[in-house]
Design goal:
alpha/beta, 5-stranded parallel β-sheet, DUF3368 domain-containing protein, 171 residues, PIN-like_prokaryotic, globular, single chain
Length: 171
């Protein structure tokens, strides 16, 4: 089963508006690493994340030993471990084990590196589109896109238009 690692960027975007449950639209095991949890400090995203992680089906433990963190720090050019390093370390570990892995992040660098290492990659807009594919109404999804934009993700007009187009196509 695919492990789906969720980054703080998406957690903050969806958690701020109380929509973390949209992540349940994915097939696979959701993973929120401890390092990612500590990066989510703003409210109400922090409280919503804690409630989300308390549910069954969300893993919160580091899946592999730290051996891959050194490689991940090298790949990312980071001197210290952080959430990004731990996400890429997880991708490297899954790549070594020939397991499928996905990353949900709005961080361009994390997305690019993870994709280059063979992970499936999506972001906050992809989560909303996936929820439409799984039954969320396009009108509700468009309202969520607007709320995400108003409360922190701050989409460019081009991205917002693309998000609406993707929602319409998924509906």
């Amino acid at each position: 089963m695919t492990r789906i690692y969720v980054d703080a960027t998406t957690i903050i975007a969806l958690g701020t508006i109380g929509e973390l449950a949209l992540l349940d639209s994915f097939d696979g095991t959701l993973v929120v690493l401890p390092a990612i949890r500590t990066e989510v400090t703003t409210e109400p995203a922090r409280t919503n994340l804690e409630q989300f992680c308390d549910r069954d089906g969300v893993e919160t433990a580091t899946p592999n030993p730290e051996v891959d963190e050194t490689r991940a720090r090298t790949v990312l050019g980071e001197s210290e471990p952080n959430g990004d390093v731990r996400l890429i370390a997880a991708v490297l570990a899954h790549e070594d084990a020939d397991d499928s892995v996905a990353i949900v992040s709005d961080d361009r660098r994390v997305r690019t590196v993870a994709r280059g290492l063979g992970a499936t990659v999506t972001g906050t807009v992809g989560v909303i589109v996936r929820a439409v594919e799984e039954g969320l109404s396009p009108n509700e999804a468009k309202a969520i896109v607007r709320r995400v934009d108003e409360h922190g993700l701050h989409m460019t007009a081009e991205l917002r238009d693309k998000a609406i187009e993707l929602v319409d196509d998924a509906g």
